[in-house]
Design brief:
The protein has about 60 residues and is mainly α. The protein has one domain. It is about 75% helix and about 0% strand. It contains two helices and no strands. Helix 1 packs antiparallel against helix 2. The protein is elongated and about 55 Å long. The chain starts with 5 loop residues before the first helix and ends with a helix.
Length: about 60
């Protein structure tokens, strides 16, 4: 089961509110979405490293 990171959940929620016209897709919103994308990538990278370390520890 794959779980979504907090940045991914926030990004999806923000996009949903934009689609529902609760929020406007202005420059500030675009910047927030961009920052959430960067943060999401960093979280995924950290998670992959942690899983790799865990797997390496089990192989010892």
């Amino acid at each position: 089961m794959t779980t979504k990171s907090l940045p991914e959940l926030l990004q999806r929620s923000l996009q949903s509110h934009i689609e529902e016209a609760d929020l406007h897709a202005d420059e500030e919103t675009r910047q927030i979405l961009d920052k959430l994308s960067v943060l999401s990538a960093k979280v995924a990278e950290a998670k992959a490293k942690a899983l790799a370390r865990r797997a390496a520890g089990k192989n010892r």
